[in-house]
Fold this sequence. Notes:
Elements: H1 8-14, H2 24-44, H3 48-64, H4 71-78, H5 81-89, E1 129-138, E2 148-152, E3 173-177, E4 183-189, E5 194-195, H6 200-209, E6 214-215, E7 218-224, E8 231-237, E9 256-257, E10 260-261, E11 270-273, E12 276-278, H7 283-289
Parallel strand pairs: 1-11, 1-12, 8-9
Antiparallel strand pairs: 1-4, 2-3, 2-7, 5-6, 7-8, 10-11
Amino acid sequence: MAITLNNITDVVIGSLGENGEIDARQREIMTALIKHLHAFCKDVNLQHHEFLAACDYLARAGQTCDDKRQEFILLGDILGVEVLVDMLSNPVQGSESESTVLGPFYRENPPVLPKGASTVQMDFPDQETVYFEGHVRDADGTPLAGVILDVWEDAPNGLYENHDPDQPDFNLRGRFETDENGHYAFRAVRPVPYPIPDNETAGELLRFMGHHPNRPGHMHFILSKDGFRPLISQIYDSSSAWLDNDSVFAVKDSLVADFKPAPDGMDTDLHVDFDFTMKRVAAEDKIAAE
């Protein structure tokens, strides 16, 4: 068959599964990818030197990845892809808490700490301490005991500990568990606005888009409990800069909280009271996920 500008897309799609079995989901994904990618090339009349530049760009993005920096998550964040995929993956109904992006700075297995403990291993001159607390419930309002909350944030210098050699290992990270009343509590510092890495290929993309790198101050959460959908979320400081212009488009109104002056007797500067509602997972959904 002669390949032409008019038939190339159909020919490539028609080759799917010809020389090896693929399942229905693979066929769905690859068919859509080929259609949209070919349509993009035609829409912008992509030139060969631009194609080669894109290949070089992706190669350099891969070379940038290491155990402290996941460049492709950063690129997906800058393009709004991660938050879009998150909304598609985790639709919200009723009172369920909204999720948002994981981000590129998460580390597995932070310290397990008792309720009310502090994640702070190193003090900064300008830090404001915060007592975070709240309740975790299901959609019916039943308190959930034994929920694991994995939390992390940037330091007052705007850096996460895995990007700052001067910070102790796992500084401002920890895992906590809700009590029999579904209550969680921990001490930390006020998260500050910071720029996502704007060097390497992430920086190139930001400049190509004419975009800025800044994120508002936020605390990261992952909530997990057997029988419930894991919840990846963030709490945003209502008074933070960049709240209405987040570089990765991840702020949602329901995740914005007031950082209020702490009451007398609470040994922190500020207090945040924020509740979460987790979604139960049907047995068939849990089996499918596994």
